[in-house]
Amino acid sequence: MSQTATVTGPVQFRAGDGPNLPVPVGPIDIDAGESEVTLSWVDGDTHGAATVPIGEFRRYVAQGAIRVEG
Question: What dihedral angle (degrees, nearest 10) is formed by the CA atoms of 38, 42, 47, 53?
Answer without folding.
Answer: -20
